[in-house]
Specification:
It contains 27 helices and 21 strands. It is α+β, with helices and mostly antiparallel strands and 713 residues long. It folds into 6 domains: 3-194, Hypothetical protein af1432 (Orthogonal Bundle); 199-341, 2-Layer Sandwich (Beta Polymerase, domain 2); 357-483, Beta-grasp domain (Ubiquitin-like (UB roll), Roll), CATH 3.10.20; 486-537, no CATH class; 562-626, no CATH class; 634-708, ACT domain (Alpha-Beta Plaits, 2-Layer Sandwich), CATH 3.30.70. Strand 8 and strand 9 (433-435) form a beta hairpin. Helix 10 packs antiparallel against helix 11 (180-194).
């Protein structure tokens, strides 16, 4: 890419004075990057030139192109941002600043930041700047796309880190903004570096599908084009195939539902582009007259556009025995589908167009809400949860449309309307029917929140992720804020209670509280208890931290090298011995474990607090072991005390099955006080899964307590 080529592309829609600004920015950057090269060995200026070229495809303004040319100057050449502002003005300077990564973080933000912390803080800075000016994210997407195109020059670990961030953040962000043109390439390139074998396999599969259906698609295009012309509908008819990552993601989704590749009807599609909206519906009638439509496979995104602005008619029809998706849209809709909000981006004397501003106000409001979250990592997690996830669209009783992340509950909806409404929520009606607070919203639901007059505030159970009351970071943070305002002593006592209950339920000895607090970077145990009390730390996070600690390698230069056993447990300082899990204590990944060398059955693996281990006299037969990397099932006995009632065992087994857990055996013992003790032997993968399941079992009607057990009462 040369500056002349860039100016030629930009000249297709920009005036001469705007081109002069772009050339001025190029000369400034060229001087700043003089003598610098990229990891690939090419001149450094190739990268900003290519990024700016990508932005010309989006028809962005001259200030955006100038900022793209200058975006690496402060970071890589030592030229201060103040100099850019002096030469190019505050508008371009702010755009450059929004995209520039941080190379240090103030001490009041965090102490001794890691490279990951710097990347997270840089991303937060970019997202906050995006709330004020969306051109920042357009420049960043172009910057990231060109980096992905040239990623081979970097070391493997760096390649994977950049690809993962691109797939988790920038791909969904491009989707949220409706920029399919960038999103598809971002996702495919990231996928190829993260999962090269799966990428190649999916790519070959896509190629086979294209080859197998090429004749069918060609016939459909010819027949449809002829019929549209005969009906007097001016149209361009063409074929379209899915991107590699899009096909892979859909195969994963369908596989989880027990479906296969033949159930995916939009691998290949026919696209019809017409002049007017009325022509879209005329063309739809012709399509349905030619071929029989597949039931349940029609979507009118013209009448009800997607939140990112996408508009089109989608229908699936049977063509020569093959289901084919047909997409029908106008030329304007097609351009918007390719370039999303960037297609509507215009600056007229510094004022945005009103329709565009209305469409983006919701996204800006979300970003403004999330700016209130203090921690960088918490902020990024909330952005991933609330902004980058797919959306559902629901109605208020007055008919206003609200969008929330997929998986949101009626309680999330209440907090989206107003914090006080969320705090006072005691119930909800969806489509006129009462539903539990854990009800997950579906597209088109009409939601009415029932608020209590005398309610004092939210329940701590709402913060228990396993119970499913709230699934958005926005709602969770509002609930935490309410509890933070409560008396510290109350939070400390409640935190102690929650911690003790979780450890007791999982059958883990309480141990040293200071040690557990340090796992969460708390030096003061009371601060740790208070954080649990107001919901900053959940019971499931405690289980995950303990499990993660046990899964960390504990090798030092003084410890013999571990060898992997057939069960995945690593035995320190021995040969390749057979290992088996002890039936007396049923250890589970995440438990502290120890091995006992038996006389004929290899190494028996026990929990360290197992009574049988405490009674061992031949201490030399005890060996150090750890879990290593495992992916198998472990038997765990769970004891459930509950009031006797009809259907109790059915409800318990149904819940366990819904969690994807198998019940190996079950027994019960009735007591005179009308209670029962039920023992379930469950096949569990990890202590984290066990924690989640126990929390849900506690919510079954009639259950008094649930905890990890060892045998009959």
């Amino acid at each position: 890419m040369e500056i002349g080529q860039l100016l030629q592309k930009a000249g297709e829609y920009l005036s001469e004075d705007k081109l002069a600004l772009i050339e001025k920015a190029y000369q400034f950057a060229l001087e700043a990057h003089k003598g610098q090269t990229r990891h690939s060995g090419e001149p450094f200026m190739q990268h900003p030139l290519e990024a700016a070229s990508i932005l010309t495809d989006l028809r962005l303004d001259a200030s955006s192109l100038a900022a793209a040319l200058l975006h690496d100057v402060p970071e890589d050449s030592g030229v201060p941002l103040s100099r850019i502002e002096e030469v190019f003005g505050p508008e371009i300077s702010k755009l450059v600043d929004g995209v520039t990564k941080l190379n240090h973080v103030s001490s009041h933000v965090m102490e001794k930041p890691t490279e990951a912390d710097l990347q997270s803080e840089s991303l937060r800075k970019m997202l906050v700047a995006m709330a004020e000016d969306l051109r920042v994210v357009f420049i960043k997407l172009a910057d990231r796309l060109h980096n992905l195109r040239t990623l081979d020059a970097l070391p493997p670990a760096k390649r994977r880190a950049i690809a993962r961030e691109s797939l988790e953040v920038y791909g969904p962000l491009a989707h949220r903004l409706g920029i399919v043109k960038l999103r598809s390439e971002l996702e495919d390139l990231s996928f190829s570096y993260l999962e090269p074998l799966k990428y190649q396999r999916t790519k070959r599969l896509l190629a086979r599908q294209e080859t197998g259906q090429e004749k069918v698609i060609s016939n459909v295009i010819d027949i449809l084009a002829a019929e549209l012309e005969k009906a007097g509908v001016a149209a361009k008819v063409s074929g379209r195939s899915k991107s590699v990552f899009s096909l892979y993601r859909k195969m994963q989704k369908y596989g989880a539902q027990g479906k296969d590749l033949s159930d995916i009807h939009d691998i290949l599609a026919v696209r019809v582009i017409v002049n007017e909206v009325a022509d879209c519906y005329h063309a739809l009638g012709i399509v349905h007259k030619l071929w029989h439509p597949v039931a349940g496979e029609f979507n009118d995104y013209i009448a009800i556009p997607k939140r990112n602005g996408y508009r089109s008619l989608h229908t699936t029809v049977m063509c020569f025995g093959t289901p084919i998706e047909v997409q029908i849209r106008t030329q304007d809709m097609h351009y918007s589908a390719e370039y999303g909000v960037a297609a509507h981006w215009r600056y007229k004397e510094g004022v945005e167009q009103d329709p565009f501003e209305q469409r983006m106000s919701g996204l800006r409001q979300l970003l403004d809400w999330h700016r209130e979250i203090a921690g960088t990592r918490e902020f990024l997690e909330s952005v991933r949860t609330d902004i980058l996830r797919d959306q559902v669209f629901v109605y208020t009783p007055k008919g206003d449309i609200k969008d929330l992340p997929t998986g949101s509950t009626v309680l999330d909806f209440a907090y989206r309307i107003h914090t006080d409404l969320g705090h006072r929520c005691v119930g909800a009606r969806v489509n006129g029917k009462l539903v539990p607070l854990t009800y997950r919203l579906r597209n088109g639901d009409t939601v009415e929140i029932i608020a209590g007059k005398g309610r004092k505030g939210p329940s701590r159970d709402w913060l228990n992720f396993n119970l499913g009351y709230v699934n958005t970071s926005h709602a969770r943070e509002r609930i935490r804020q309410w509890f933070r305002k409560q008396a510290r002593s109350e939070n400390v006592e409640k935190g102690k209670e929650i911690l003790e209950k979780e450890l007791r339920r999982l059958g883990i000895s309480l141990g040293n509280r200071e040690e557990i607090a340090l796992l969460f970077n708390y030096q003061d145990v009371d601060d740790f208890h208070a954080a649990i009390g107001y919901g900053e730390i959940s019971a499931s996070q405690i289980a995950m931290k303990i499990a993660a600690r046990e899964e960390q390698p504990k090798l030092t230069e003084h410890v013999p090298r571990a060898v992997a056993s057939p069960t995945g447990i690593r035995v320190m300082g021995t040969g390749d011995l057979l290992t088996q899990l002890a039936n007396c204590c049923h250890p589970l990944p995440g438990d502290d474990i120890i091995g006992y060398i038996t006389r004929s059955r290899g190494v028996s693996i026990h929990r360290q607090d197992c009574p049988n281990i405490a009674r061992v006299t031949e201490k030399e037969r005890l060996v150090s072991v750890d879990w290593g990397r495992v992916d198998q099932l472990y038997p765990v006995v769970v004891r459930i005390d509950a009031w006797k009632r009809v259907g109790l065992l059915r409800d318990l087994s149904t819940l366990v099955a819904e969690e994807g857990v198998n019940i190996a055996s079950a027994s019960s013992n009735d007591h005179e006080n009308h209670t029962s003790s039920i023992l379930l032997t469950l096949e569990i993968r990890s202590i984290t899964q066990l924690s989640r399941l126990l929390a849900k079992l506690e919510g079954v009607s009639g259950v008094i307590s649930v905890m990890r057990g060892t045998g009959p009462s």
